[in-house]
C-alpha cells in the first residue's frame, strides 16, 4: 500500500464536481463517416488529460458520475467459512483443502463462529443494523475454481445492513482542505471465496488451486453515493483501516485480501441513471481511482459521440491505464439463487434476547461484541488533532501510511520538539524521502530516535533548520552516525556570535554594492538576495532572521 | 438363524451359538446365490470378513460393542463409505472411492456391524422402482417366494416366469431386496419422498423414515437436502428401533441435526392402545387405491378401534397439491446439488478437452441418465429469476401449508396417522416400465412425500399378503421427534397382524434357478 491519499492528483474530481461541457464536440465531427474503432478510441482517451472541461455552452447539460462499490474482504480467521481447513496465504497449491472445500458428495457446510463474529464486528463498526436472523443462499454458476457449482452467500437476508462510512477527501486549490463525506452501506454479507484458476495457454491447460476455495469473505456493498475515483479511493482506504483496526481482515490488496469491484455510470443530474458497467480486477487503491476516472470519461466520450454504454463487465489494464471489456462467454448470467438448505437460519442475540441458561459458546451476543470494539481510525485521528493540535489532513496521512502513526508517536516520546513540528518533519521530510525511494516506513533507514535527536538539536537552536535538513540527508544515508556526531564533525552548529555575524554581513554588503543599491532603491526582494549571500558565507549556519535584523539595521540606519 | 430378530442373533452371538464369521459367511453365500436379484452394486466381502474377525475377537474376550456387534448390514450406494466405491448407480460416480464415511455408516461400524456391501438404487435415488440405475433393475425377492409362485400357478397369465419378475419399489430397492432375501439384518436406505417406505411396502419389510434432523445426513449424497433422511429397513420393528438408537443424535457435521439429547428408542412390549387416537386422513382415500389395500387399511383401523383406540377421520386439506409442490422443490434442489458433478475433482470425466465448458457438457451428458438430466433441466427452469417467484416461492408456501395440515391434526389430539404406503402391491417390471419415471414417481410417492415436506417420522409396517401373495404394508405417521411413540405403535400393530415370513427355500436350494437367473441378470446389464 504505497500511494498516499493526500498526494494524489485526482483531476477527475474537478470535472465531476464542476461538470463538463462540449469539450469533445470537435471529436464528434471527426468520427462521422469513419468506422468507430474502440481500441483507438480507448487509447485516445487514455492519452487525453481528464480535466479538459470547457465552459458550458448554453443549453448543454453537466455530466454527473455515479459510482458504487462492492468490496470483498477476506476474513482474518484460522479456518474457512464452512470447513475446518486452515487459511494461509501462499501455501503450496491444494494443500489446504477439506472434503467439503473440494465439494465431495455428501459433505455439508458448518458455519465458522469466528467469521460470524467478524461480520458482526465489522457491521457494528460501519454503523449497520445487525440482523438478528440472517440466512444463506446458493448462487449458481459453473466455473472450474468453484467446485460445488454454487457459492454460498447471503443474498436475501444478509447479516448486516443500512450502515454508513464517514471518509474525507481533500479539495481546494492546493488540496489543503479536508471535506468530510459519508457513503451509505447497503449491506454486509458473509460468503465463500472461490479457488484460483491458472490458465496455461501454451499447453491449453487450466490449473486449479482450491486453497482459497471456501475462505470466508465479507462482501460490503455500498450505495452508489460516490462520484469519482478519488472518493472511491478514500472510502476503500478508510474501510481498509477500519478492518485492520478491528482485526476482521488483513485487507491487504496485493495479497487479494481486499478486492474491489466498481459499478459506474454517468447521467445528467435530474435525469434517470445511465447504464452502468462493472469494472473488476482492481488490485490497488491507485488503480481503483484511475480505473474509475478512466471509465467515467470513457462513458462520457462514448455518449457525447453518439455511442451507447453496454451493461458489461470490464477489467482495468494497469499497463495501458484503461478499462477493456472482459471476455464473458456466457453473457448475462442468471445465478438461480436458492436458499441453502443445509444451514439453518443464523440467529444472533443481544443481552435482552439472550435465552437464559444458554451455553455462551453456542450463541453470539451482539452487545458483547460491541463492547469488544477497538478504537476506530476516526477516533484516533480526532485524538491526534485534539492532543497534538495537528491539522485534520495531517492526522489522515498519519493513519493512511502504514506504520507512520507509530513512527510519529515514537518520535514524540523521545523529543522535546513540539508535536506540530514533529508532524511537519514526519509528514514532509520523512515521508518525502520514503516516497522518493518508494520505501515503507518499516524500511526507513532513519529510526524514530535518530529523528528525535535531530529535532532536539533544532529545538535547542544548536542548528538551523536548513542544516537540520542537511543532517537528515546524512542520517538517511545510514552510515551509523548520530545527528550530534554529524553536526560536530562537519561543524554545522549555528553561528551565534553577533559580532562575527555582523562582520560577515558588512563584508557581503561590500562585495555586492549593486544588490545594496537595489535594496536602497526599494526593491523588496533584493534584501532576500543579500540574506541568501550572507547565509552562504556562514555555510548555512546562521539564523536567517538574525541576519535580516543586522542587514536591515545596516541598510536603513 | 438368518430369519431371527437382531436381538435374538445378538444373543446367539454372545452365547457362542454362532460366530460373527460364520454369520458373515452365511450372508455372503446368500448374496452370491441371490446375485440375480441385483440387490448389491458392490459386495464388500473382504471388508466384512475382516470386520467379522475383529468382532469375533471381541466376543471371545466378552467385550461385545453392543447389539450390532457382528451383525451383517448393508448400505445404500448413496452413502459415502471410506475406501469402498460409492456410485449412486450413476456413470458419473463409477469408480469414485470416497475418503470418508457417512456419519451413519461410521456409527454402525463403531458398533461392530459388518458391512456386506453397497446396495442398488435408482440413479441418484431418483425413482420409485429401483429400475433406473446404471447397474440395472433390482428384482423383488417375493417374485421367487413360495407364496407368490403358488398364486401365479393358480392364475397363469401365459407370460414367461422369468420376465415376469416384480419390481422392489424404490429408490432404496437394493436395500429392501437385501434385507428381504436374508442377506443382512438391516440396511440403510434414504428417504426423500418415500424411497425407504415404498420398497419396504413392496418387499414386506419395516421401512422407517425418521424425523428430519434426528439422524445425520453427513455423507448421504443428497437428492433434496431439505427432505432427505437416512432410512432404516429391517424385518422387525424392534430391529429398526435398535438401529435408530445407534444412528440418532446431533452431528456437528450436519447443522440441521437437532442438539437435544436423544432419548432411548427401546420399545415397550405392551402399550395401552386404548389411550391412542389414530387419525385416518380422508384425502388419502383416492380412486387409484387398490381395493385390497383399501380394505386392509380399513381392517387396520378396525383393529385399533376394537382394542379401544379412538379412530377418527381427519383432513389434511392441502394433500392434493403436495405432489406438484414436491416436484418443484425436488427438481430445484436437484439442479443445485448436481452442479458439483463437473468431472473436475472426482467422478466421470469425458475425453473432450477443447474447452472447459465443452468438457462440462459432455461429462454431464455421459455421466447422468435421462431422468437426472430431466430433473436438472426442470429445476433450473424453476430457479430462473423470472420463474423463481411463481414456482419455487409458491411451492415453499404450499409446503408450509402442508406441514401445517399435519401440525393442526396433531394439535387436535391425534397421536398417529394411519394411511396406505402404496396404491397397490408390487407390479412386474414389464408393467412398471410402461410409464416413465416421472409418472411413476408421482403415482408412487403419493402417500409418502408429504411426510418429507413436513419432516415427520413415518414407518411402513407390512400387514398382509395380497390375493397374489404379495406384501401390502400400511404407513404410520407420527409427530415430529415422537419417533419412539410411532415405533411403539408400529410394534403393537406388527404383533397383531403377524405378517408371514417370505418363503424362499426353493430359491435358496435351487441352484440351477439362481444360475439361470444370473445369466439373465448379466444379459440385462449389458443392455444398459
UniProtKB/TrEMBL annotation, chain A:
**GO biological process per UniProt:** glutaminyl-tRNAGln biosynthesis via transamidation; mitochondrial translation
Function per UniProt: Allows the formation of correctly charged Gln-tRNA(Gln) through the transamidation of misacylated Glu-tRNA(Gln) in the mitochondria. The reaction takes place in the presence of glutamine and ATP through an activated gamma-phospho-Glu-tRNA(Gln).
The biased composition feature labelled Polar residues covers 32-46
Its family? Answer: Belongs to the GatB/GatE family. GatB subfamily.
Query: Which InterPro entries would you find in this protein's record?
Result: Asn/Gln-tRNA_amidoTrfase_suB/E, Asn/Gln-tRNA_Trfase_suB/E_cat, Asn/Gln_amidotransferase, Asn/Gln_tRNA_amidoTrase-B-like, GatB, GatB_Yqey_C_2, Gln-tRNA_amidoTrfase_suB_CS, Gln_synth/guanido_kin_cat_dom
Q: Please list the reactions this protein catalyses.
A: L-glutamyl-tRNA(Gln) + L-glutamine + ATP + H2O = L-glutaminyl-tRNA(Gln) + L-glutamate + ADP + phosphate + H(+); L-aspartyl-tRNA(Asn) + L-glutamine + ATP + H2O = L-asparaginyl-tRNA(Asn) + L-glutamate + ADP + phosphate + 2 H(+)
Task: Give the signal peptide as a residue range, or say none if absent.
Answer: none
Chain positions covered by the region annotation Disordered: 28-47
Query: What are the UniProt keywords, alphabetically?
Result: ATP-binding, Ligase, Mitochondrion, Nucleotide-binding, Protein biosynthesis, Transit peptide
Write down the superkingdom of origin.
Eukaryota
- Compartment(s): Mitochondrion
**Boundaries of each Asn/Gln amidotransferase domain copy?**
406-555
Official protein name in the record: Glutamyl-tRNA(Gln) amidotransferase subunit B, mitochondrial
Predominantly, its location class is: mitochondrion
Instruction: State the oligomer form and interacting partners.
Output: Subunit of the heterotrimeric GatCAB amidotransferase (AdT) complex, composed of A (QRSL1), B (GATB) and C (GATC) subunits.
**GO CC annotation:** glutamyl-tRNA(Gln) amidotransferase complex; mitochondrion
Quote the EC number. 6.3.5.-
Under the heading SUPFAM superfamilies, the entry gives: GatB/YqeY motif, Glutamine synthetase/guanido kinase
Query: Matching Pfam families, A to Z?
Result: GatB_N (PF02934), GatB_Yqey (PF02637)
> Which PROSITE patterns is this protein grouped with?
GATB
UniProtKB/TrEMBL annotation, chain B:
- Specify the enzyme's EC class, one word: ligase
UniProt-recorded Gene Ontology molecular function terms: ATP binding; glutaminyl-tRNA synthase (glutamine-hydrolyzing) activity
EC numbers: 6.3.5.7
* Source organism superkingdom: Eukaryota
> Which BP terms does GO give this entry?
glutaminyl-tRNAGln biosynthesis via transamidation; mitochondrial translation; regulation of protein stability
Cellular compartments annotated: Mitochondrion
Q: What is its main location?
A: mitochondrion
Q: Where is the active site?
A: 76, 171, 195
Positions of region (Disordered):
147-167
Catalytic activity, as annotated: L-glutamyl-tRNA(Gln) + L-glutamine + ATP + H2O = L-glutaminyl-tRNA(Gln) + L-glutamate + ADP + phosphate + H(+)
What SUPFAM superfamilies is this protein classified in?
Answer: Amidase signature (AS) enzymes
Q: Name one GO cellular component term.
A: glutamyl-tRNA(Gln) amidotransferase complex
Ranges for domain Amidase: 23-487
Function, please? Allows the formation of correctly charged Gln-tRNA(Gln) through the transamidation of misacylated Glu-tRNA(Gln) in the mitochondria. The reaction takes place in the presence of glutamine and ATP through an activated gamma-phospho-Glu-tRNA(Gln).
This chain belongs to which protein, by name? Answer: Glutamyl-tRNA(Gln) amidotransferase subunit A, mitochondrial
Native source organism of the sequence: Ictidomys tridecemlineatus (Thirteen-lined ground squirrel)
Gene name of the record: QRSL1
